[in-house]
Amino acid sequence: MISGVGLGFRRDIAKQIIALEEDKPKFIEFAPENWMQMGGYWRKKLREAAEKYPIMCHGLSLSIGSPEDLDFEFLKELKKFFDEFKPEVYSEHLSYSKCDNAHLYDLLPIPFRQDAIDHVSERIRIVQDYLERPLAIENVSYYTAVAAEMDEASFISQIVEKSGCNLLLDVNNVYVNAFNHNYNAKEFIENLPLDKVKYIHMAGHEQVSPDTIIDTHGQPIIDPVFDLFEWTIERISPVPILLERDFNIPQMKELQEEIARLQEIVDKVWASDYASEKRNS
After folding, report:
1. Do the Cβ atoms of 204 and 245 come closer than 8 Å?
2. pLDDT digits over 144-186, tens only?
3. What letters, b where the CB count within 10 A reaches 16 and e where it falls short, cover 17-43?
């Protein structure tokens, strides 16, 4: 498994990523929904990228928390796509984005309740069995808790245990939620099943008021999030790290500098005996 830093494969920078010969990301990630039905020029570019880089896929529309049945036509197309491009990790959001066949184009929080744990866990098991591959679920940013019966870390942990899935740990989302909901980010992370973390996302955000941060993926990563990232990876085994930048995409040089800073932290922590001791303690 790759343990270096990758970059999101966006059409705005696709040709640049394919053309890179130095300071390349270790892998690329993209949303399969944005490419599954694509032909012609962009399908050719995707194949070029797949020949040059390992691939991770991060989904947008599985809507694992929805009340209605899973969309097996979508899963059929997804499986066919995975057979062609063979992503090393398939991840999705622990949220929902459609209800009664209405696509909401947002990642909405699932209530932290036992009935939701049972519902989501069963759906994850079905998806994993159908696709014949593990799913990694991502902790999402949210701006209000809905009918919570427990804390978020307990909710996530029980779903991971009950479904047998893996965890995509988004460190920026932890920072955003801890700020907005006034809890301790490190304590939250310590209460997660860190042995099940198989992938990490890193991104920027925007503070829109003294007490509110919005998870935008449109700004550089700030120093406190880098610090939380370093503290976090001291406690887990090496996994792939993604730099997410969805909007306000800067020049490639700036992205490469962010990748290099993340990679420097990765190399320092995961090469050290200290990190090994922390993981085993």
Report:
1. yes
2. 777 789 999 999 999 999 999 999 999 999 999 999 999 999 9
3. bbeeeeebbbbbbbbbbbbeeeeeeee
CA distance 29 to 48: 14
Give CA–CA dist 268/61, Å, rounded.
Answer: 36
Condensed to tens digits (0 to 9), the pLDDT of residues 195-206 reads 999 999 999 998
* Domains of the chain with CATH codes: 5-280 (3.20.20.150)
**Which own/partner contact pairs does 118-125 have at CB distance under 8 Å and 24+ positions apart?**
118/162, 119/65, 119/67, 120/64, 120/65, 120/94, 120/159, 120/163, 121/158, 121/159, 121/162, 121/163, 122/163, 123/64, 123/70, 124/64, 124/159, 124/163, 124/164, 124/165, 125/163, 125/164
The letter for the amino acid at 59 is G
The full DSSP string for 61-117 is S--TT-SSPP-HHHHHHHHHHHHHH--SEEEEESSEEEETTEEEEEEEPPP-SHHHH
> Cα dihedral angle (259, 105, 153, 121), rounded to 10 degrees?
-110
Closest CA to 99 of 65, 123, 72: 65
